[in-house]
């Protein structure tokens, strides 16, 4: 077999020859070694003394007969492979027992014991094999527990010991961190090089009940990250039983290029009497794995925690009875020309969380360029200040800008680039869900990033400028760390300027890379966009040379990608001219075959927004179409372009389209809706009435405009406030036309009826009301029942109105349960119309699986208001054409993308945990303890100004002070949904906010003051408290009577934080020794009333603006009260502290609201409100644990110096 690293051939492997032999046997690994050793009743002396008790790995030298006995039990029942007793035998784990110096010896001896017993049982008909077990250690490198080099060295030492003991293969198992896998694979490769011997490689990852690895990696990312490495088997083990592994195994079966393995626990662990218990019987385990083998082609099976020899014997029977389903693997498909065939794997980059395919539907791969010290003064300033949070914020901004990959460049003269790259990338990987392009002219900096980036990166870049040495050095990094690579068209002669030279360099690199083991799908060529704007003669052909070279690369080098820094082409021109030239050049490069670009959205416009004349001038410049007359240039497109945009601002250049008055009436009406422009609307409607009947105007021209609005919103090109402006314009247009319509009694002019409600116990209505707005203004009659609607009320309304479709909305997790119960009640009431379910708490899987199983009719997942509209349009069209029944749905030609075509996609989504799965402890995590975190030392309790509670009313508050705490980013992007579009630069986005959002905010702030629309109130106080394990016990003001307690979760790894740790323990008599600050704030009931009046008055934009402001002002009020409490307790903020620092929590302590991971039990707010006597400010909690009024929030406050936000 040819392995992924083409320079090495895999030595003959008896194990792989057997695995891939003509019989294609199912191979069975042994069961739980730890469980089996525990059953032997070993004493402390057997382990080597009390200090070593529990160190199973030491038994290889202190009690070898016990180890051999366990191996023998599994071999006797028919297993094919036994694992060495070395799961925790890396030196970094053995150090916990003081045995780090014995790592090589223990691994070698354990391998020798296994080898001896395996050979004893091995026959020619049934050979037995030894797998060298390498566990995950107790460190997660992605979280900074250990550095990459130390972990790699430890794995190398372990691998060398296992090779010396003559294992047949390695199994890197129970992997919880992809970066740990990379360290293990590199350590093993170094051991292969040192010993001159190779062994087969198997990697087995652990997917938690959450559906991801412990650090958050999903199964698609696992495949993407590990695909580049020369492993032979990839699969799952531990944490769960086979049932919870099913969808992950299905994904591996369909997409992994390796043989698939599955080694589950005997079911999910259950805590019985403090001991993990596994319920799955041998027969049940066998039956569940049959599907994996027969249908999914799993060829390696076995048992993990809780599996006994009886379980393995049952699996051995299965292996004799079944043949695995056929599926492709690299063993059979790899060739000398293609060492890493992708098979069914889609080439992609990956963060530690998820994948980003290289090929993007309807787009090129957008590489965000703002985190680049070479090109950004802001990044250089943040680097100089070592403001890592600021740099992470820049990166997060590019996520919002819809970048697919994040370019990271820290090249800055005078700084330690390797240290900077390490510091920045280590923070990015856990804070930003984008793959990284590590960008540097120095390979050492790229490697510094690779050592902390667990995902699959792209290296930017390599070339032949310094000959072969650096070119191959970067390729070596790509091979060792599993990365893609950018190749610049530069050689020993410098930058290539002609298309032929660019292609020649690309062809040279293609040959070298493939021979080195880098497949074509991991190569990105950068043909280098050089300026065509200088007027220098030799620069005139730069543009055409680049476009032509892209075409030549695409046509002659199959499988590769082309990436370009587009904006270089227009260097030196005015900003307005650059926008136009960059846009045309980008389009032409994409047409030629470019599929990735490092590009600033500020310098790009859709081609449709550029006039034909301007496009022609740009293309003349790109192609150097100057015209000469007797040697004299009579037409120079560079001069023409410069003249065209002389004195034109960037804003003017970005303006597009003819004026409304210039359009035909049909297009003009459509554009009125798209632009949300009501000025001139009535004259246009009156003009249209001279030619068309009013219903045709509505159903054709106006609704066509709303359809475009929906498309623009869905593609991210229009933000919600502007959608609502369009809806208001539509409403005005219909109101103007209604007097002209002939009403026939009993006949409705609506397209269909739509019944919508927020379910019982849920007060959130913004999402529901947006659906109402969109459907109403697209021709539907909407019956909006409001919030907190019981099932009986919905059923009764449906009986009255006979709606074509029912929609239920909810924001809370418990709302999803009500929705499911309602669906069953609909069945009982003989209601079977389609039902749309929407809201933040829903997942597609819950709707498409759990809810669809309950309801006799059709259930649709409503992603957003326009998804509901798409379904309704399709439904009503089908009903008109007799193509729909409520029981069967669409009878023929079912449309795509309307919420009913999702069943096939379920297998690609993470398995959702059941309640029992969520509650069960993961087998490979340390148990939850109540010990205080070592990172949180005890501190002196603060001195409160009073004990008990106090009220603050609107009379005590200068609301202008509260406005000072308003988080504009959260308001504009989160509440008002004014989010940055792909075409906008950060500067353009900020300018748009200053022009459009800030004036609206100032207007509403003034109205809030003048009309008292908000009534900010708070109740806060200080209560005696004491820590009791993972709980806070709260006492009355006298400290004599216990009021109650908060039970709080603790992190199971890392710093093991728990909020309780931020307070001092109860004393020996169980009395409080600390103080718990608490607060509850509200914007008052009037805010809800005002918002509803705006909605009912069809003032959709105002409704969105005021509702969002009121919600965000509750958060601002909470910050205002929190600052007051800090000051009262002696930790006042410094004078002049800016809001950015407040929002970044650069103050002492932290504020924790119920419902977030550190204190997830929302119902705990109920007792808090009681203790604070919050009814004094009109704040209550209803039966469904909802705060009323809606614009309210509560919190616990900790003043400990280590108190920070965290997830438990």
What are the SSEs and their pairings?
Blueprint: H1 14-19, E1 27-28, H2 33-38, H3 44-47, H4 59-62, H5 64-76, E2 81-83, H6 91-94, H7 103-121, E3 129-134, H8 148-164, E4 169-175, H9 178-195, E5 200-205, H10 219-226, E6 233-237, H11 242-255, E7 259-263, E8 270-272, E9 275-277, H12 282-296, E10 300-301, H13 309-321, H14 330-333, E11 348-350, E12 355-357, E13 365-368, H15 377-384, H16 388-400, E14 405-408, H17 417-431, E15 436-439, H18 443-450, E16 458-462, H19 468-481, E17 484-488, E18 490-491, E19 494-495, H20 499-516, E20 523-526, H21 542-556, E21 561-565, H22 575-592, E22 596-598, H23 612-622, E23 627-629, E24 632-635, H24 637-644, H25 650-654, H26 665-675, H27 681-689, H28 694-714, H29 720-737, E25 753-758, H30 766-776, E26 781-784, H31 791-801, E27 805-809, H32 813-828, E28 835-838, H33 844-854, E29 859-862, H34 865-880, E30 884-885, E31 889-890, H35 915-919, E32 948-952, H36 959-963, H37 968-975, H38 986-1011, E33 1017-1028, E34 1031-1035, E35 1042-1047, E36 1074-1082, H39 1085-1096, H40 1100-1128, H41 1139-1143, E37 1150-1152, H42 1164-1172, E38 1180-1181, ...
Parallel strand pairs: 1-10, 2-3, 3-4, 4-5, 5-6, 6-7, 7-10, 13-14, 13-22, 14-15, 15-16, 16-17, 17-20, 20-21, 21-22, 25-26, 25-27, 27-28, 28-29
Antiparallel strand pairs: 8-9, 11-12, 18-19, 23-24, 30-31, 32-33, 33-34, 33-36, 34-35, 36-40, 37-40, 38-39
Helix pairs in contact: 5-7, 7-8, 8-9, 11-12, 12-13, 16-17, 17-18, 18-19, 20-21, 21-22, 22-23, 23-24, 26-27, 26-28, 26-29, 28-29, 29-40, 30-34, 37-40, 39-40
């Amino acid at each position: 077999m040819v392995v992924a690293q083409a320079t090495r051939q895999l030595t003959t492997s008896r194990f792989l020859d057997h695995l891939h032999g003509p019989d294609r046997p199912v191979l069975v690994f042994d069961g739980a070694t730890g469980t089996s050793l525990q059953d032997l009743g070993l004493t402390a002396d057997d382990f080597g003394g009390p200090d070593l008790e529990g160190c199973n790995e030491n038994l290889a030298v202190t009690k070898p007969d016990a180890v051999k006995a366990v191996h023998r039990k599994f071999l006797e029942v028919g297993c094919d492979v036994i694992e060495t007793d070395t799961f925790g035998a890396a030196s970094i784990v053995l150090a916990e027992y003081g045995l780090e110096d014995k790592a090589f010896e223990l691994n070698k001896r354990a391998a020798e014991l296994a080898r001896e017993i395996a050979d004893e049982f091995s026959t020619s008909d049934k050979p037995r094999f030894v797998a060298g077990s390498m566990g995950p250690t107790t460190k997660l490198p992605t979280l900074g527990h250990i550095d990459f080099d130390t972990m790699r060295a430890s794995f190398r030492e372990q691998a060398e010991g296992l090779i010396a003991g003559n294992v047949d293969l390695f199994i890197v198992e129970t992997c919880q961190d992809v970066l740990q896998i990379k360290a293990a694979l590199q350590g093993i490769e170094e051991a292969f090089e040192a010993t001159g011997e190779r062994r087969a490689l198997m990697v087995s990852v652990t997917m938690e009940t959450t559906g991801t690895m412990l650090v958050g990696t999903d199964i698609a990312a696992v495949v993407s990250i590990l695909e580049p490495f020369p492993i032979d088997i990839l699969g799952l083990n531990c944490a769960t039983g086979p049932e919870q592994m099913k969808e992950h195994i299905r994904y591996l079966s369909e997409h992994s290029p390796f043989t698939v393995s599955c080694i589950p626990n005997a079911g999910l662990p259950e805590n019985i009497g403090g001991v993990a218990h596994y319920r799955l019987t041998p027969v049940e385990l066998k039956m569940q794995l049959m599907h994996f083998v027969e249908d999914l082609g799993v060829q390696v099976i076995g048992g993990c925690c809780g599996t006994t020899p009886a379980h393995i014997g049952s699996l051995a029977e299965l292996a004799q009875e079944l043949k695995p389903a056929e599926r492709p693997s690299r063993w059979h498909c790899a060739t000398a020309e293609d060492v890493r065939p992708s098979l069914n794997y889609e080439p992609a980059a990956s963060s530690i969380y998820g994948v980003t395919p290289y090929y993007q539907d309807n787009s090129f791969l957008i590489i965000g360029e703002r985190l680049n010290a070479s090109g950004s003064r802001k990044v250089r300033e943040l680097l100089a200040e070592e403001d890592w949070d600021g740099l992470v914020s820049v990166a997060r901004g590019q996520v919002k800008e819809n970048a697919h990959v994040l370019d990271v460049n820290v090249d800055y003269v005078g700084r330690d680039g390797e240290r900077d790259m390490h510091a920045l990338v280590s923070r990015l990987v856990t804070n930003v869900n984008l793959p990284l392009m590590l960008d540097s002219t120095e390979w050492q900096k790229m490697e510094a990033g690779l050592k902390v980036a667990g995902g699959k990166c792209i290296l930017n870049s390599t070339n032949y400028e310094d000959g072969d040495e650096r070119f191959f050095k970067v390729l070596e990094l790509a091979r060792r760390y599993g990365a893609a690579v950018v190749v610049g068209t530069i050689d020993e002669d410098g930058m290539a300027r002609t298309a032929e030279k660019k292609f020649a360099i690309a062809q040279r690199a293609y040959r070298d890379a493939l021979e080195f083991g880098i497949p074509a799908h991991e190569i990105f060529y950068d043909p280098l966009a050089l300026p065509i704007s200088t007027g220098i003669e030799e620069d005139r052909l730069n543009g055409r040379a680049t476009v032509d070279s892209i075409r030549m690369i695409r046509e002659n080098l199959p499988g590769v990608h082309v990436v370009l820094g587009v904006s270089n082409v227009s260097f030196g021109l005015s900003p307005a001219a650059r926008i136009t030239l960059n846009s045309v050049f980008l389009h032409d490069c994409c047409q030629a075959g470019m599929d990735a670009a490092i590009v600033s959205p500020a310098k790009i416009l859709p081609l449709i927004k550029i006039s034909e004349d301007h496009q022609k001038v740009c293309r003349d410049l790109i192609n150097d179409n100057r015209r000469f007359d007797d040697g004299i240039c009579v037409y120079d497109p560079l001069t023409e372009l410069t003249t065209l945009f002389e004195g034109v601002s960037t804003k003017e250049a970005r303006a597009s389209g003819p004026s409304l008055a210039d359009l035909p009436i049909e297009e003009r009406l459509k554009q009125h809706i798209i632009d949300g422009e009501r000025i001139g609307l009535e004259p246009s409607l009156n003009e249209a009435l001279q030619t068309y009947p009013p219903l045709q105007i509505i159903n054709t021209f106006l609704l066509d405009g709303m359809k475009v609005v929906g498309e623009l919103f869905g593609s991210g090109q229009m933000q919600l406030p502007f959608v609502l402006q369009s809806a208001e314009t539509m409403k005005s247009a219909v109101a103007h036309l209604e007097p002209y319509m002939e009403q026939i009694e009993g006949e409705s002019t609506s397209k269909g009826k739509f019944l919508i409600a927020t379910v019982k116990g849920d007060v959130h209505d913004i999402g529901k009301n947006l659906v109402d707005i969109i459907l109403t203004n697209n021709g539907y009659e909407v019956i909006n029942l409001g919030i907190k609607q019981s099932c009986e009320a919905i059923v009764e309304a449906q009986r009255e109105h006979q709606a074509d479709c029912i929609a239920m909305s909810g924001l809370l997790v418990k709302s999803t349960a009500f929705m499911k119960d309602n669906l069953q009640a609909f069945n009982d009431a003989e209601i079977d119309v389609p039902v749309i379910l929407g809201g933040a708490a829903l997942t597609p899987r819950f709707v498409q699986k759990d809810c669809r199983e309950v309801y006799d009719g059709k259930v649709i997942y409503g992603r957003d208001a326009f998804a509901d509209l798409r379904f309704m349009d399709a439904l009503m069209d089908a009903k008109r054409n007799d193509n729909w029944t409520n029981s069967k749905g669409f009878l023929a030609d079912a449309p795509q993308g309307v919420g009913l075509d999702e069943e096939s996609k379920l297998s690609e989504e993470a398995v959702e945990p059941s309640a029992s799965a969520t509650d069960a402890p993961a087998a490979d995590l340390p148990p939850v303890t109540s010990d205080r975190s070592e990172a949180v030392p005890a501190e002196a309790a603060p001195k409160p100004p009073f004990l008990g509670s106090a009220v603050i009313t609107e009379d005590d508050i200068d609301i202008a002070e509260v406005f000072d705490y308003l988080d504009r980013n959260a308001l504009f992007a989160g509440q008002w949904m004014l989010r940055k579009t792909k075409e906008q630069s950060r500067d353009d986005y900020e300018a748009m906010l200053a022009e459009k959002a800030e004036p609206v905010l100032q207007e509403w702030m003034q109205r809030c003051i003048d009309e008292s629309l908000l009534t900010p109130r708070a109740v806060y106080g200080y209560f005696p408290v004491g820590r009791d394990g993972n709980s806070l016990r709260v006492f009355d003001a006298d400290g004599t009577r216990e009021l109650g307690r908060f039970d709080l979760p603790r992190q199971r790894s890392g710093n093991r934080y728990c909020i309780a740790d931020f307070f001092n323990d109860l004393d020996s008599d169980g009395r409080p020794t600390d103080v718990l600050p608490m607060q509850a704030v509200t914007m008052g009931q009037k805010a809800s009333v005002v918002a509803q009046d705006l909605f009912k008055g069809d003032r959709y934009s105002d409704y969105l603006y005021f509702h969002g402001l009121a919600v965000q002002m509750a958060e601002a009020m909470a910050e205002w009260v929190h600052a007051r409490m800090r000051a009262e307790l002696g930790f006042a903020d410094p004078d002049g502290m800016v809001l950015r620092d407040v929002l970044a929590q650069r103050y002492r302590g932290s504020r924790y609201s119920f419902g977030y991971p550190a204190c997830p039990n929302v119902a705990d707010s109920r007792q808090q409100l009681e203790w604070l006597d919050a009814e004094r400010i009109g704040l209550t909690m209803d039966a469904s644990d909802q705060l009323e009024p809606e614009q309210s929030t509560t919190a616990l406050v900790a003043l400990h110096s280590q108190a920070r936000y965290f997830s438990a």
